[in-house]
Every structure is written in C-alpha cells, then in structure tokens.
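User: I'm curious whether this sequence folds into something compact or stays loose and floppy. Could you predict its structure so I can see for myself?
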Amino acid sequence: MMHQHFHAIVWIDHHQAKVFRFDAKDVDRDVIRPHDPTVHLHHKANTIGSGHAPVDRDFLKRVADSVAGAGALMIVGPASAKTELAAYLATFAPDLSSRVSIVEAVDHPSDGELVALARKFFRASDRIHPPV
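Assistant: Here's the prediction. I'll summarize afterward.
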C-alpha cells in the first residue's frame, strides 16, 4: 500500500530512475525506466550531431508524476539526467520544482544508502525549514 510521504529522493540516470518516498519509519520505492532506453552514443569525427541522446520528456514526466505529492524532494545521480529532470520540472512543473531542495551528484549507492542520505539531509533541512 502506498502512503503519502512528505519527503522523496530521486536517483536518476538515462536508464532508470529510482524513486523513494519516505518518512522516519516507512519507504515506498518505484523504479521508472524510459520506454526506449538510450544506448551510449559516441561522437565520431566528420559526423552530424553531437552524439548526445535527446532529452526523453516522457520519461521525465513519468518521474515527475511519481513524486508530485512530495513536499520536499532531492534529485541525485551520476550524470546529466539529474539536471535534465530539474530543468524539466522548472519548465513543466514549476510548483514541484519549487519543492526541490537539492540537485547533487551521487554515483551508484545502494537503495539503503540513498534513503539514509536523504533522511540525513532532510533531518538537517527540516530543523532549519520545518515541513508545513
């Protein structure tokens, strides 16, 4: 059963997004994958294009929808997908974007490490800015 949790963390790269909604005792977890996961593209000399995959707006929308009820959100990940998600929220979900507490580089931690990182961050943040 899904609970409505105030805090959420999204770990995202171009292959998946791990979404954790949580409180002090409970965690709900989802994994969202793009419909057409990108492969690593390499730029070759004398070819047209940058070699970068385009932003997958459908994937970002599904990630945004999964955390729409969060009152405070962390976005983390190893590469550019985290900033693409933050930019997507700023453009298409400004209310949710205003609830993003931090966008930070995080490599490939375990699920438990992600939730521990988020709980520690929000414990400190909530002391300064208590949830409403």
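Summary: The first helix runs from residue 57 to 66. Residues 39-43 have pLDDT under 50 and may be disordered.
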